[in-house]
Design goal:
The complex is a heterodimer of chains A (143) and B (244). Chain A has 143 residues and is mostly beta strands. Chain A has one helix and eight strands. Chain A has one domain: Immunoglobulin-like, CATH 2.60.40. Chain A is elongated and about 90 Å long. Chain B is built from four helices and seven strands. Chain B is rod-shaped and about 130 Å long. Chain B is 56% helix and 18% strand. Classes of the chains: A mainly beta (143), B alpha+beta (244). Chains A and B meet through helix 1, strand 6 and strand 7 of A and helix 2 and helix 3 of B.
């Protein structure tokens, strides 16, 4: 009886130590679009570019280029996410932070005051939250 | 004249006889023996009488005493009895070599038995407690690792995600590895100590305490024949000093 108890203890040892596995590998954690090291499908999709005329009091009617794009929120690992998009205009070097337009959605619009016609305009886009940014993706549109 | 000569001879003969009687009658003396250990010491007097008396009256002169007590060494000595007086003799018997060796063996046996019976269970109990605590830490470390995995998926803060991947998860993995190692060590110590407990209890239960063989007693009892109610037996001892 005592001998069996000893065997039971010996059998318990590997059970105790083998029941938990360290299967978390930081190098393999790449499926979150907000991760700077995200590896996966493109998050940003271009919706094209067009011009629009707006009336600015004191100035009058102004024509500007609109570059529209949206974020594939279905790639997010959680729902109900709020975020912004950092846009770096490679044509003029400016960087701005955009909020969704309309608010709460996944569509964004970047406005260029100087129209660029016949040439592609490339934007470097990154998801952003708390002043930090995720992986960069580039979209190019031509007016 | 011849008659007086015969009377003189008779008187001389009587005087000589008296003188001889006075000279040959031996006086006695007392010996008061203060023996240590008291109440247990026996002695053989002149190779004939086995006694325990504290006071003996003997003829004057030398007498051979062999003292002995249980667990003690025999003392073979000659005491001189002074006529008409009482002599106090202090006898202190030393422990026999067999007894000293037996005491050492007994103490060693008791010490081994005490350590063998009580130390392994205490170690096993400590190891069991350590194993439980280690296992709880191990479980907690695993839970923290899983929580960080979930935090990675739930986070929408790129800065926080970078911190989780480069700092928090490696630290948690390190803690997890340490907790697992500690659990393995604690479990091993517990199994070894539990095994030692079982083994020593089994081994010690079959061991018998050392027996004391009082060889001095055998030698002492071989010195004199003591008849019993059914007769008596002769006992003799022989020792061969092989070491010499």
């Amino acid at each position: 009886m005592k001998f069996n108890a000893l065997h039971l203890l010996l059998a318990l040892l590997p059970l105790l130590c083998g029941c938990y596995k360290d299967d978390v590998d930081p190098a393999k954690l790449t499926n979150n679009p907000f991760d700077p090291g995200y590896v996966g499908e493109n998050v940003f999709v271009s919706d094209g570019t067009y011009t629009e005329t707006v009336f600015i009091p004191g100035v009058g009617n102004v024509v500007r280029q609109v570059i529209a794009f949206h974020v594939r929120s279905e790639l997010f690992l959680t729902s109900g996410v709020t975020y912004a998009v950092q846009v770096h205009d490679q044509q003029n070097g400016q960087t701005v932070l955009l909020n969704p337009d309309p608010v709460g959605g996944n569509a964004f619009k970047y406005y260029k005051q100087n129209l660029v016609q016949g040439f592609p305009v490339c934007l470097e886009l990154r998801l952003s939250n708390n002043l930090s940014v995720a992986r960069a993706e580039t979209i190019c549109v031509t007016l | 004249m011849k008659h007086w000569r015969n009377i003189d001879r008779s008187v001389v003969a009587v005087v000589l006889m008296l003188a001889t009687t006075v000279c040959t009658a031996q006086a006695t003396g007392k010996l008061r023996l203060n023996m240590e250990p008291a109440g247990q010491t026996e002695y053989v007097l002149d190779g004939q009488y086995r006694l325990r008396d504290r006071e003996v009256t003997l003829l004057e002169g030398q007498h051979r005493f062999v003292f002995w007590a249980p667990e003690r060494r025999m003392l073979d000595t000659v005491l001189t009895v002074v006529a008409g007086g009482t002599s106090d003799v202090r006898i202190s018997l030393r422990y026999s070599e067999e007894y000293i060796q037996w005491r050492k063996r007994s103490e060693r046996y008791e010490s081994q038995r005490r350590w063998g019976l009580y130390a392994p269970p205490v170690v096993a109990a400590g190891a069991a407690a350590w194993m439980v605590v280690s296992y709880m830490n191990y479980s907690q470390a695993h839970r923290e690792l899983e929580d960080l995995n979930d935090a990675y998926a739930a986070s929408t803060d790129p800065g926080e995600i970078g911190r989780i991947k480069t700092e928090e998860i490696p630290a948690a993995k390190d803690d997890f590895a340490k907790a697992r190692t500690q659990t393995i060590i604690a479990s091993s110590v517990f199994v070894v100590s539990a095994g030692a407990t079982w083994y020593l209890r089994r081994k010690l239960s079959s061991r018998t305490p050392p027996l004391f063989e009082d060889k001095e007693r055998t030698r002492f009892e071989g010195l004199v024949w003591v008849p019993s109610g059914n007769g008596g037996t002769w006992m003799a001892g022989l020792s061969i000093p092989l070491a010499r």
